[in-house]
Hints:
By secondary structure, the chain is of the alpha+beta class. Helix content is about 50%, strand content about 15%. The chain has helices at about 1-30, 35-55, 65-90, 110-120, 140-165, 170-195, 210-225, 230-235, 235-240, 260-265, 285-300, 340-355, 365-380, 395-400, 400-420, 445-460, 485-500, and strands at about 130, 135, 245-250, 255-260, 300-310, 315-330, 330-340, 385-390, 425-430, 435-440, 460-465, 465-470, 475-480, 510. It has a 5-stranded antiparallel beta sheet, with helices on both faces. It has a 5-stranded mixed beta sheet with strand order 9-10-8-13-14, sandwiched between helices. The longest helix is centred in the N-terminal third of the chain and has 27 residues, at about 1-30. It is rod-shaped, with a radius of gyration of 43 Å. About 35% of the residues are buried.
Amino acid sequence: MTTLFLFTAVYLLPTFIMFYMSVDIFLRNPKRAEHRLLSLFTFAYGMMFLGEFFRNASPIEMSPAFVTYWFGNAGLLVFSTSLHFIFRVSNLRKKIPRFLYPGIFYAPMLIVLVTYLFQTNVINSQRFEQVGLFIYPEFNSSYLITITVGNVFHTLVFTLLVYTRKQLNDARRGIITLLIFAASLTLIWNILFGYFSFYGKIPPYAYMYGGLFWAAAITMSMRRFDFLASYQTRFATLYNLNPSAIVLLDRSGVIESANPAAYQLLEETELVGQSFLDYLPQNKRTDWLEHYTHHFDSSNQFIEYETKVATIQKQERYVVMDGDFVFIEQELHGMLLIRDIQTSKEAEQAIRFFAYNDPLTKIPNRRSFYETAAAELLQHASCSIAVVDLDGFKAINDTFGHQIGDEYLIHIAQLLEEHVAEIGFAARVGGDEFFLLLYDQTPEQLHHFATSLLERFQVNPFTLAEELIDIRTSIGISFSPDHGINLDTLIHHADQAMYDVKNNGKNDYRIHDTMDKTLRQH
């Protein structure tokens, strides 16, 4: 009973620890090579402890077979998988020629083949002796060679980790530091309990307990640095509950993960493996890729990057992106938080639009006209101002009602926009008053413009059911620099000319200081 209890504590307990860690690591993310390697590494260590349990519980004559076919081969698997894991987690694998990776790490496993072909073990002692409850290998040259090879291996691992730490300046540096500490303890442990005999005092092959240092380091890494935790687990809550779209991208912008809000925003059923560029409008792709690549290379987060996304149905929506860069599985990824601002953008555009446009006719308003005209006066050698005032509009409102009056104003605004489109723009500045700004027009051209505008009104009356409502307007015109060089002066003179028309029969036009009718075409 005492022997079983001792063997359970010395061998089975470490076995269970290693097996539990192996399963835990594998289930965290079975698709990742690092998880599979570390799971296999810890499983092999557990097999070494389990093999020792059965070897010491069996007759001494069974020990050579256990060492040959179980313990030694498990040790070789520990050697290969741990070295492969170190190269992957440190990215040193990128410096190995493609044709050698990863096969070079499993070359020692050829010894397993030799073992089974020749029915002998060339790396461990085959002679054993019983001392107390344990069966110890003979402390001979084969045993010491095995210990030395193992220590050379651990020295190599330690050197690789130190080298890798010098190359890093990110979160992985802390992980590598912890692994260096574990490698140091393991190496010291192996030297102490490998080259010195403690027969009868501690269990045989005591150096293998150094693997527990690795187990402790890995456990601490997982807890302190979230090392080897799959991003699906770490971001599950954030992904599933966040109302904003979240996507995880690699350096080239390929989507590796997306939350439900991202699928909803992009109206897509499968995002993983797709290029994020495919969900941007064509004219936004270059700017976004340059922005993303620049911040990815510097690992600097960005906030409030405004752009558009295009759904699978090619419908564009305004979004704002916040981006950060995180290491997941020891690879740098971009994490985008995408907020849909289409509604607020539309509201903003509406506010901006109505700040400079008339809410009824949708053409520019007084504010827009004054700001634009003042700027255009500085850009053109000559600008003309036309004041267009409707004749009899109050009677139309009183007769047909304000709704018909509004439709009448909309109709006139459309006619003005069409007529002035090539040479200027129109604005509604009051209830029934419109301003026009015209660029670089001679007096002769202004006469032609005003005449043709009156003709357009005449041939395009407002239609109400089967009734036609004629359009009658009084138009006053001034132009720079003859009638002034600032906007207020030009408007004042155009207004004077318009009132002159009002006082002389209406439905006509006048150019300020040009009262002869010889140039008129009506």
